[in-house]
Write a structure and sequence with these properties.
The protein is mainly beta. It contains two helices and 30 strands. It has a six-stranded mixed beta sheet, with no helix packed on it. Strands 2-12-11-8-4-5 form a six-stranded antiparallel beta sheet. It starts with a strand and ends with a helix.
Length: 461
């Protein structure tokens, strides 16, 4: 016999496989909590992204008519779990706007056992609708109706779920000095192999301190000019000390705001101090691969139209330096870089879309680099093996349609000294992840969001 409950009422239900239906079109989840009212971990959150509890006792599904159904086999619920909370949330308006917000429990034979209709929802955006809880050797159902004005985050934190870290405020134009390192939590990347591939068979030890960048005594009278791009294959290996370039696969045009900034690679090579000049490029951000065979100091500046040093892109004392730089071609299409180098060098200018893609597979690299993310919000985990400053920032290109310049770099970013395991949260969309500084080998991969973080982000993003 169906028993209708009001807020605060409770009733015994069969210790069996029950069907709990929520009658509205809002987000529904379940929390399996202990006697202390807290989840034991992410596995105790059942939501559309993780719809089955590890025990198999609680499952979330949706009927053809859109009704959300929680299947709870109470006889199979682990002894450590004291209650199963049924949670509703919305990211559009408040719960008072959700019509027909109700819970109906049916037994194994399909007969309705208890029902609860929520009639007093207000400004809340999240609510514990009801709970199944242990009592006197059996199970009871309680009509809870406890709302949270601070939304799903407040509800989750109250029950032991760690909320995602909020982004820091927008930074000033300049990054803090390397000495002003930002503290960050240790990441949980798997242990790396004993040896990471580097520019040579073994990675050289870095100098204790980087010298201040010195301008060359005199620049050559004629600067190096790019070779004709049509003669350079996109995946050719660089001569001499140059790296083998990764494949330049491009994203779909619908996901790429700079579709007019594609061009064939330009290559340059020389020896010693020089000015690198490339004509006829589309204005806007580009990639510059650089490798220098050297025992000494390497530095790279961008040059203004007045031949003044502008941005310092490289300042390193590493032997046989190499890396991928991020530069911006000014209006007029002429990129000019000032190079201090102690030996032969090889450079290649590539379109921004040639950045390597971030995936859940481990990507291994060395020195500065530019990576591309074109997916959902997640974290990118880094394992840095160098001893110098490691700086990573990011640029959100999702809604940025100006091909001439990059948007403002966004917080949070990584700024640490020495070997680190660190993670950088990145939003969904088209995101450039810029390894700006780092003399040493490193690894990067996308982290699969935990169930707790994914559940919270599903509503908050």
């Amino acid at each position: 016999m169906l028993r209708g409950l009001i807020k605060g009422d409770n009733a015994f239900v069969p210790t069996a496989a029950l069907r709990v239906a929520v009658g509205t079109g809002i987000d529904v989840a379940a929390l399996l909590v202990t006697g202390q009212g807290r989840v034991r971990g992410d596995a105790d959150i059942v939501f559309p992204g993780a719809p089955v509890h590890a025990s198999g006792a609680v499952r979330l599904a949706e009927d053809a008519d859109g009704t959300v159904v929680l299947a709870a086999d109470l006889a199979a619920v682990e002894e450590a779990v004291d209650r199963v909370l049924l949670v509703a949330s919305t990211d559009e308006g408040a719960l008072r706007d959700a019509r027909g917000l109700s819970v109906r429990v049916s037994g194994p034979d399909g007969a309705a056992v208890v029902a609860y209709e929520v009639t007093d929802a207000g400004d809340e955006t999240a609510m514990v609708l009801a709970e199944l809880y242990r009592r006197a050797g059996g199970w009871k159902f309680r009509a809870v109706g406890q709302g949270y004005v601070d939304g799903l985050t407040g509800l989750a934190v109250d029950h032991g779920v760690e909320a995602p870290t909020e982004a820091l405020p927008e930074p000033e134009d300049a990054l803090p000095e390397p000495a002003d390192v930002l503290p960050g939590p240790e990441d949980t990347l798997p242990e790396p192999a004993d040896v990471l591939p580097g520019p040579e068979d073994t990675l050289p030890e870095p100098a204790d301190a980087l010298p201040a960048p010195q301008a060359p005594a005199a620049l050559p009278a004629a600067s190096k000019t790019a070779s004709p791009p049509a003669q350079v294959p996109a995946q050719a290996s660089a001569p001499g000390p140059g790296p083998v370039l990764p494949p330049a696969s491009l994203p779909e045009a619908a996901d790429w705001p700079y579709e007019d900034n594609l061009f064939e690679p330009h290559t340059l090579e020389g020896s010693g101090n020089d000015v690198l000049s490339v004509e006829g490029l589309p204005p806007g951000p580009v990639l510059v691969d650089l490798a220098v065979q050297t025992e000494g100091h390497t530095a790279v500046w961008t040059l203004t139209q007045a031949n003044k040093e502008d941005d310092l892109l490289v300042n390193s004392s590493m032997k046989d330096w190499r890396g991928r730089l991020l530069a911006v071609v000014p209006p007029g299409g002429r990129l000019r870089l000032k190079l201090t180098a102690g030996g032969p060098w090889h450079a290649r200018v590539l379109p921004l879309a040639a950045a390597r893609r971030l995936t859940e597979d481990t990507l291994e690299s060395w020195g500065p680099d530019v990576l591309l993310h074109t997916g959902e919000a997640t974290d990118v985990a880094f394992h840095y093996r160098g001893d110098s400053n490691f700086i990573v920032d990011s640029y959100d290109l999702t809604k940025h349609k100006d091909p001439i310049k990059l948007p403002r770099s966004r917080f949070p970013y990584i700024n640490e000294i020495g070997r680190r395991r660190e993670a950088l949260p990145i939003p969904g969309g088209t995101i450039l992840v810029h390894v700006k500084r780092g003399d040493g080998a490193w690894r990067a991969r996308l982290k699969q969001p935990s169930a707790a973080v994914a559940w919270l982000r599903r509503v908050r993003d």
